[in-house]
Every structure is written in structure tokens, then in C-alpha cells.
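Intended use. Records like the one below are meant for learning the mapping from a protein sequence to its folded structure. Do not use them to infer anything beyond what is encoded.
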Amino acid sequence: MLNKILEKISSSWIFFIIVAVLYLILLSVNFPLAKDTFFKFLELLQKIIPVFILVFIFIFLSNLFLDSKKIAKFIGKNAGIKGWLISIIAGILSVGPIYMWYPLLADLKEKGMKESFIAVFLYNRAVKIPLLPMMIYYFGAAFVVVLTFYMILFSIINGLLVDKLLKLKFKKPIKT
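Structure written out for the chain above:
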């Protein structure tokens, strides 16, 4: 009977229920800690909601203005250099927690975005424009320029490797 109930409930709801039960146990065992944890959660939620809204606005706008043909042209299978540049620049300019970008990237992938461009986007999130002045102050301009160049270069290599590995993984075996 319990198995049938669990099959009907999605894994995200099961996770939520487990966390809620653990929180209730903590509440009964250590009320001050539970209270502190709850307020920390609210602070985190307050920080995440603006980025969450921004990402969903991007998803909405991409659904509104970008169809599969436009995505295929700019970041699809045959996009070429333009797709690489868009992925690099978008990765560098993206802000907020990485997991907030996953829904948008999944949506773009469904519309035809190349997996290698997703890898390049994610790799280039490590290049943070607001942190560059501080890096230059601590490490010098030459180091920062070389490091940034290599991060962008290796993002492209990473994208190419992702593309090759995905082709190998999903290649059908030859029947003899």
C-alpha cells in the first residue's frame, strides 16, 4: 500500500516531505536552532527570488521572441562561430546562482541549442567581470588577461569535447 502511494507522489514531493519532517523534528528538539534555520531560509529566499524572476523573464522572452528557426540560426547545430561567440559572451555576462540558469538552458536545448554551446556557457560563468578589477589588483593585469584568455579557450575545447563525447555515447553499435 505504501509503495502505491509513493509511486503516485513525485520525487520532489517526497523530498519536500522528508525535509519538512526533519524540520519538525528539529523544531521539537532544538527550537532556537529551528527558528534560526527558518530565518536563514527566508534570507536566502529573499536573495534568490529576484534572480529567479529574472531567469523566468528570460524564459518568457525566449518563448515569446525566439522560435526554433531563430535558435537554430544563432545557437543551433549549424550556428558556427556566431554560436560560439554568443555562448561565450552570454556565459560571461550571466549573473546569479548557476542552478537558476538550468531551466532556461533546458528550454533553449529543447528548441535546438547545441550541447557544446551549453557547456561553453556554463564554463564561461567562471569569468566574472565585477571581480576582474580585484583580480588585477591582487595578481596583475598580465595574469588576469592570460587566465581569462585560457578560460575562454578551454571553454571552447570543453564544448568540443562534450560534443564529441555525446556523439560517441549515442552512436548506435554496428551490427555484424
